Amino acid sequence: MSERLITHLRHVALAVPDYDKQHAFFTDMWGLSEVATDTGLSFLAAEGSPENYIVRLRRAEEKRVDLIAFGAETPADVDALADRLMAAGVEIVGEPGSVDTPGGGYGFRFFDVDGRTVEVSSGVATRIHRRVEEREAIPVRLSHVVLNSTDIDRTRRWYEHHLDFALSDTLSSPHMGEVMHFMRCNPQHHSMAIAKGPHPSLHHISFEMRGIDEYMRGTGRLLRGGVRKIWGPGRHLAGDNTFSYFLDPHGNTLEYTTELELLDEDSWHPHVYDFSQPEVTDQWGTANPMDEFVAKESFNDPDRGVFVAPPV
Known about the structure:
This is Catechol 2,3-dioxygenase-like lactoylglutathione lyase family enzyme. This protein has about 300 residues and is of the alpha/beta class. It has helices at about 20-30, 75-85, 150-165, 210-225, 280, 290-300, and strands at about 5-15, 35-40, 40-45, 55-60, 65-70, 90-100, 105-110, 115-120, 140-150, 165-175, 175-185, 190-195, 200-210, 230-235, 240-245, 255, 270-275.
């Protein structure tokens, strides 16, 4: 593997028609904090994260994913990655330059093989954050993002070849074949996963909680608040992390999780897990069964942002 230039997942940017309802959900129910705002834009942080924000929300006529943002160590790494992608014929939608969002920095944007906009930046100022306290059931940080693709092997190869992501594990079944690749850009089991779907779209965004107790308290708060639960609470085998999946007001799936596995990358070998085995999807056996109804919710609506760069 060549030298890895991407270090971590920074944030996910979403556009939604009912901006006020989505904003209230993220701040009042999900537990994020607004740190900056502009006309029709909100930047939402996790209290325990040094990232200036982990979700960007934009008012728009159509629901879409605006971009997925990753970090790099230095401006030189950003330039090296941009040169690599341009030489390989990847479509650049914003050349390297100053980033005009909270924290600033230096970065650029491009389309991945499925047409979603990806941003890579470095030199972003860290945010003054705090320790999330015991029993405080709010996200500590952004954990990972899962993206739907019609050809998960093609998307996996693209991220391996162009961005040096590595495969951690795969979910498969005798009847459906391979349905999800877990991809990493650091020792965390996955910062991104690629799921098999009928169209490119957002599968889910995952948020790390302080611990098991805070994860369960957050799950309970959402249930008591009438938020629709899709799946959980339980514990996956791939990644060994807990999961509770809920729908936001626009039908996007969001996850509370904790204890995602950290790998020894020098010795790790990817597994292929048969997700038709119940202990693979949920080691604890506490979640509702994974079935076609649960899977369908995660297909989401077709992403209207494919090969269309966001306006900001």
